[in-house]
Amino acid sequence: MMQQTKKSYLSETVARLKPSGIRRFFDLASSMEGVVSLGVGEPDFVTSWSIREACILSLEQGYTSYTANAGLLELRQEIAAYLARKFHVEYDPEAEILVTVGASQAIDLALRATVNPGDEVIVVEPSFVAYGPLVTLAGGVPVPVETNGDDHFKIRPDQIERAITDRTKALIICSPNNPTGTVLHKEELEAIARIVKKHDLLVISDEIYAELTYDGPYISFAAVDEMRERTILISGFSKGFAMTGWRLGFTAAPAEILRAMLKIHQYAIMCAPTMAQYAAIEALRNGEQDVEYMKKSYRRRRNYFVQSLNEIGLSCHMPGGAFYAFPSIRETGLTSEQFAEKLLLEEKVAVVPGNVFGAGGEGYIRCSYASSMEQLQEAIKRMKRFLARL
Amino acid sequence: MKLTEKEVEIIEILEKDARIPIETLAKMVSLSVGETEAILKKLEETKVIVQYTTLVDWRKVDGHEGVTAMIDVKVTPKRGVGFDEVAERIYRFPEVKSVYLMSGAYDLSVVIEGRSMSEVAKFVSEKLSTLDSVISTTTHFILKKYKHDGTVFDQGDQDHRIVMVP
Ligand SMILES: Cc1ncc(COP(=O)(O)O)c(C=O)c1O
């Protein structure tokens, strides 16, 4: 019989994709008892009862079928009102808003609807782990631009400009940022806007942490002069409304772009989960107080945690938003992976090594402070002991 | 009294956890320990913070189960002093945990804690009902406390999240 080498069934793109760098730590951390976890990228609050109750009511009433592809019109109207009220950006709920399965799907749609094979997409790093791989899956080429801690991880306009080639299609920005917590202020957004305009780029603005901005009002990139027409705004309910498991997000973009995203969404997903959409309507109508309450609580924990990190010798800039502290561990002479692994094994504190977030993340660790004050105090105690021994 | 934002924030934190170490509290509101102490002193002296209390689930302590009753009391208000005088006569009893003036079907809502049902019954029949202005009482015994002053009893507060998410 003829000997045949078994062919791979996998797409070459997927085969080449690196698995998430966090997997190994997850397996290690979840096999251990008594771990204080600062590794979670999600709220420690349970979704507000009134939101959960709205979902239950929708089920009782039997709303169990598909919704419109773009999402319930009622929800899109609430989203439009919310964006106008909170971020001063106006979108037409019928033509410019799409309800998605988490912000994750919205990012995927934005890229797949706009990237041609070989197009370059600038990713400001350290960044959320999904951007690069999603660019690749859309057939594009991610071009990382590295920010650093000495600049509070703010992207400088000249850095973007240097990364631009004639293949550059888009720029992904995320403010407040995961993992650094950095918030871009008005002037910084305006400086980016000037380059974006000059080079005719599209901006994918991931604003999933907008509600969790602690030191001043949030400014949406779409609200910057002349940017609305070239911005795909991504947001959702996961972080601000403590609804990660509901898998509900949304995107707002000029009608032509949104139509293209909707086309893919229609074929791939049909529509976002119906019960989650009913819950989201309640979240937008009556959830503001709970969001404020959670935000206040994160803010206090941030103040405590970041000051404590600095006191025990892990120098950390004050993050303006999200719920991550991103302290430097350079002084210890360890790589971020070594540091995270040693800390986990010796003191049972789980943090995420900074290098999984791409260029510029090496030398840092990501600590989520979305944990109870007791857990945070315990983590600081253990980390202090750990550092004293190094 | 007009309080600063930081003062209000300190009260909010202490209301949830009065035993938080002052160093931690100070960091949470971004003040020095000295400044925080000064604010605490002021809040205590002006009686904005009235008392630091402990919420105990006595059912868990053998021999200390106790009973709580809520009593609806109808009274005749007195000229000049209205309900205040009779309310004061009631709240002076140590068994009485709280007294509220209510709108609606009755006038005063009185919460009593006693060691046993008969102790509470005795208090109601001998002390409360016999007061001059008291017209009638209706006693409701609390069978189980699910939530008290914003705190849910016996709430599983385990973290449902998995250890790591990127
Ligand atoms: C920056 C950023 N964007 C998007 C997401 C995904 O959000 P969703 O749960 O809405 O898909 C996350 C989650 O960690 C994130 O950190």
Question: What does this entry look like structurally?
Answer:
Chain B: Keywords: DNA-binding, Transcription, Transcription regulation. The complex is a heterodimer of chains A (390) and B (166). Chain A is α/β, with parallel strands linked by helices and 390 residues long. Chain A has helices spanning 12-16, 23-30, 49-60, 73-87, 102-114, 131-137, 157-163, 186-198, 255-268, 274-286, 288-311, 336-347, 373-389; strands at 36-37, 97-100, 120-125, 141-146, 168-174, 202-206, 231-236, 249-252, 324-325, 349-350, 352-353, 365-368. In chain A, strands 2-8-7-6-5-3-4 form a seven-stranded mixed β-sheet, with helices on both faces. By secondary structure, chain B is an alpha+beta fold. Chain B folds into two domains: 5-46, Arc Repressor Mutant, subunit A (Orthogonal Bundle), CATH 1.10.10; 62-143, Alpha-Beta Plaits. In chain B, 31% of the residues lie in helices and 20% in strands. Chain B contains five helices and six strands; from the N terminus they run H-H-H-E-H-E-E-H-E-E-E. Chain B has helices at residues 5-16, 22-28, 33-45, 84-91, 117-128, and strands at residues 67-75, 96-101, 108-114, 134-141, 147-148, 151-152. In chain B, the strands form two sheets. In chain B, strands 2-3-1-4 form a four-stranded antiparallel β-sheet. Chain B has a two-stranded antiparallel ribbon with strand order 5-6. In chain B, helix 2 (22-28) crosses helix 3 (33-45). At the A-B interface, helix 2 and helix 11 of A face helix 1 and helix 2 of B. Bound molecules: pyridoxal-5'-phosphate. Pyridoxal-5'-phosphate binds next to helix 5 of chain A.
